Task: inverse folding
């Protein structure tokens, strides 16, 4: 398979696809899920995120909300990557994602489709869109450890 | 004669500046406006030649600054047709509205009194009233808007009753751009002995303002939306109302006397409202801004903007991928969204794409978060014109909007 990173047409298709048919897009009414509501301070992005963690495994992750292409697609891609991971694996993915956003070294194989956001920093003001849910997930995992 | 090319030469921001590497086209004048050289010079002159504090004319320099500062009060008074002692300098519209809500409202409202606003009001003309109502147990009620988003005299009349003490509305909505008939509304409001507060943030910069003629009780506006500096604004109030009002802030410069028995004597209106060292440079900049606008002529400005607004709306209407929410706008504030395959593209995605082409427009709810139930969308993209914008700039906007698709919006970050 060609690298996604170097194929702008593929990158665009992936982003559009996740925006138009977001994965894991429906919240559930179930108390065993942890939930967080993330929203942008500067724009309209507004997303609710839920995770179900059992024995250190993220068994399920879901979201809903109203947000721009970048925030929606980055959340959808995140849920696909994270579902079924152990907490440790999830943290590694998150760390790599932020490294990519901050133009540091990262593992392309770990991030899979999430590499479409590699150059989101071209429009600095959009970094917050691409990291909104990722920050939310980070916070959920931290809270999980504290409890 | 109104000559836009000549006018543009007065603005450093219109001299070859870029946004994302493309020639800058600034269409976010509802948020803030660009500054002409004369305003920038007035501000820097304060720092380079006449720095000193006001209120203390112990030496010549301070006396001169004090004079220049007070002269601004006269210039503002002349601009809106009131007395200079009715002009209070504040940090802007938001500060002015809070000053009125607390300074007037706390003393004059009681349980079950009513404050009337609309869903189109800016946060700064909404939240102070919510807070005042929470403190006094008064109620905030909403005057219904008509189909085009206007506040009609008829609807104001329907909402008025003996419990209404304050009516607070924008003369021009920052999302819908329609002008309210303040004069007729004031007449109705006064029949019930209530006071009419007018948020002039989006009207004073664009149309001639005469508070005597409007007969509103308060009018507030911000300098930065009319070619002036940020963080300075005006609260106009009828003198007898200002006299009865408590200052929101207390401190130096506004008191005559205080002692350890807690006796405090305040200065007269307007000084009792101006606690602490004010934004002196910005007040001097405001004076230059008003002078600048008057030289061009408020009627010329209004005429030119109307033509440009009509042109923009008619061009936008020709695009089948654009919905305009306020085709009936009276002034150059146009709210729209772009469609791709019949679906609205999120405003921020559109604004980012426009930015890529040098165009500066704002997306979002424009601080009027109550309005969205009315418009039935979450957000819009807003094109807000000012007298230095041109047809060519509008043409560029139209050209880029024609190519605005979801795919192109995504490409912005690839
Ligand atoms: C209608 C209206 N009212 C109030 C404000 C607040 O003005 P400021 O931020 O200068 O206090 C604005 C500015 O966005 C406005 O458009």
Result:
């Amino acid at each position: 398979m060609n690298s996604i990173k170097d194929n702008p047409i593929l990158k665009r298709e992936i982003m559009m696809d996740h925006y138009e048919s977001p994965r894991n897009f429906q919240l559930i009414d179930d108390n065993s899920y942890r939930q967080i509501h993330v929203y942008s301070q500067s724009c309209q992005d507004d997303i609710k995120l839920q995770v179900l963690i059992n024995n250190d495994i993220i068994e399920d992750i879901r979201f809903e909300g109203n947000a721009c292409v970048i925030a929606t697609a980055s959340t959808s891609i995140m849920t696909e990557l994270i579902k079924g991971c152990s907490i440790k694996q999830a943290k590694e993915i998150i760390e790599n994602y932020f490294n990519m956003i901050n133009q540091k070294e990262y593992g392309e194989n770990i991030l899979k489709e999430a590499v479409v956001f590699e150059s989101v920093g071209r429009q600095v003001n959009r970094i917050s869109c691409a990291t909104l849910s990722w920050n939310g997930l980070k916070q959920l995992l931290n809270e999980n450890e504290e409890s | 004669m109104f000559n836009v090319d000549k006018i543009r030469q007065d603005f450093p921001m219109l001299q070859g500046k870029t946004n994302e590497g493309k020639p800058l086209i600034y269409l976010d004048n509802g948020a803030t406006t660009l500054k002409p050289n004369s305003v920038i010079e007035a501000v820097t002159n304060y720092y380079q030649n006449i720095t000193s504090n006001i209120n203390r004319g112990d030496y010549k320099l301070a006396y001169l600054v004090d004079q220049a500062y007070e002269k601004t009060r006269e210039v503002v008074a002349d601009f809106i047709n009131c007395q200079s002692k009715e002009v209070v300098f504040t940090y802007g519209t938001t500060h002015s509205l809070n000053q009125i809500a607390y300074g007037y409202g706390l003393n004059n409202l009681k349980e079950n009194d009513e404050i009337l606003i609309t869903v189109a009001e800016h946060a700064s003309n909404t939240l102070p009233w919510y807070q005042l109502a929470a403190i006094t147990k008064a109620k905030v009620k909403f005057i219904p808007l008509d189909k085009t988003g206007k506040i009609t005299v008829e609807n104001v009349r329907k909402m008025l009753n003996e419990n209404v003490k304050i009516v607070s509305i924008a003369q021009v909505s920052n999302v819908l751009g329609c002008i309210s008939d303040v004069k007729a509304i004031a007449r109705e409001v006064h029949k019930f002995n209530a006071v009419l507060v007018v948020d002039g943030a989006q009207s004073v910069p664009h149309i001639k303002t005469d508070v005597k003629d409007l007969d509103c009780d308060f009018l507030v506006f911000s300098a930065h939306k009319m070619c002036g500096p940020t963080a300075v604004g005006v609260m106009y109030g009828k003198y007898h109302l200002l006299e009865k009002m408590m200052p929101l802030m207390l401190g130096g410069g506004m008191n005559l006397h205080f002692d350890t028995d807690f006796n405090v004597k305040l200065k007269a209106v307007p000084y009792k409202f101006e606690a602490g060292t004010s934004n002196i440079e910005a007040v001097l900049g405001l004076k230059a801004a008003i002078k600048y606008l008057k030289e061009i002529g408020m009627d010329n400005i209004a005429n030119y903007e109307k033509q440009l607004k009509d042109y923009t709306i008619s061009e936008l209407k020709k695009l089948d991928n654009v919905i305009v929410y306020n085709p009936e706008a009276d002034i150059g504030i146009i709210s729209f969204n772009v469609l791709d395959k019949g679906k609205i593209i999120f405003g921020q995605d559109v604004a980012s794409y426009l930015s890529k082409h040098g165009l500066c427009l704002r997306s979002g709810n424009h601080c009027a978060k109550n309005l969205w139930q009315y418009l039935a969308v979450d957000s819009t993209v807003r094109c807000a014109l000012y007298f230095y914008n041109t047809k060519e700039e509008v043409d560029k906007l139209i050209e880029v909007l024609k190519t605005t698709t979801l795919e192109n919006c995504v490409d912005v970050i690839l």
About this structure: The longest strand of chain B covers residues 333-340. Chain B has a mean pLDDT of 96.
